[in-house]
Design brief:
Blueprint (H helix, E strand, L loop, with lengths): L29 H4 L1 E4 L6 E3 L1 H4 L10 E6 L17 E6 H8 L2 H11 L7 H13 L3 H4 E3 L5 E4 L3 H20 L7 E6 L2 H4 L3 H10 L3 E2 L6 E11 L2 E4 L8 E8 L3 E9 L8
Helix pairs in contact: 4-5
The protein binds zinc ion.
Zinc ion binds next to strand 4 and helix 3.
Length: about 270
């Protein structure tokens, strides 16, 4: 019996009064309170930030915010370029893992820059970062006069970076985590993209650019599609789709085409 409960002469509790003023005990079991959301990259269940931060070492599945795209791509830009940047929830482990490779893309965009004054700081950071790297001399390419004419980059790191940003925009646009079975392909260079002209045209006709921060830094498109009798069309329902087409456009200089398909669905001809 709790305070406020009423009972009959025989001791029965009157229906509807039991526990009226008795507080329910809070259930602090980690399974019900701690884990609610998942990392949008690896799908790991996240430990709430408040709980994770009380631990001696931040747990690998502790909740963190991660910017899409990485913050270093905004280096040197005014605050107006950084408004409304998009974020996702990620585990601490993924956040750390991606931060190790994110500077590579900044360095690449930085040294692609020729005369864009807004990108000056990216260029300075890129050159500094490349020259201070322990294997700098192996990465630089020289001409016969000993002048630097190029730098080697790891395309694996770029793909990992695009994968992160693609999973991020999927999560932002569809409020969903990309299913494990998705097969994801990146087409990085304009020459290879030419073979996918119908998909590029499809993307051009079926979606407006969306922006994180500012279109000069990062804009993207992402469209779920279905295939009926060999005809590709847009669908708003993810469940009806056989995959998504996407474009990631960095600094209006680096365009990446992404094709994500559910593993059991094969596109024979587009
Ligand atoms: Zn993760």
């Amino acid at each position: 019996m709790g305070k406020g409960d009423r009972k009959t002469k025989k001791g029965k509790i009157i229906i509807g009064t039991f526990g009226l003023k008795r507080r329910h005990k809070k259930n602090n079991s980690p399974n019900t309170i701690t884990f609610i959301k998942r990392c949008c990259y690896c799908r790991e269940k996240l430990i709430k930030r408040k709980i994770a931060s009380k631990q001696l070492y931040y747990p690998s599945n502790g909740e963190t915010d991660d910017h899409i795209p990485q913050q270093c791509l905004y280096e040197g830009y005014n605050v107006e370029f950084k408004l409304n940047r998009k974020k996702v929830l990620s585990c601490y482990k993924c956040n750390q893992k991606f931060s190790e490779i994110e500077n590579d893309l900044r360095d690449f965009i930085g040294i692609l820059n020729i005369d864009n004054i807004n990108q000056e700081e990216l260029t300075i950071s890129g050159v500094k970062s490349i020259l201070s790297h322990r294997n700098a001399s192996e990465r630089l390419c020289y001409n016969k006069n000993g002048e630097v004419i190029g730098v080697d980059f790891s395309f694996d790191n770029f793909d990992l970076n695009h994968l992160k940003n693609f999973k991020g925009i999927y999560n932002i646009e569809f409020k969903n985590i990309i299913p494990k079975e998705y097969k994801i392909k990146f087409i990085n260079d304009p020459y290879s993209q030419k073979k996918f002209t119908p998909i590029l045209t499809f993307l051009e006709n079926n979606d407006d650019w969306k922006v994180s921060g500012h279109e000069d830094i990062f804009r993207y498109k992402i469209i779920p599609f279905k295939n009926i009798n060999g005809e590709i069309s847009k669908t708003n329902k993810l469940s009806d789709s056989i995959g998504v087409f996407s474009l990631l456009h960095y600094h209006k200089s680096l365009l990446i085409l992404v094709i994500g398909t559910k593993k059991d669905k094969i596109i024979k001809k587009i």
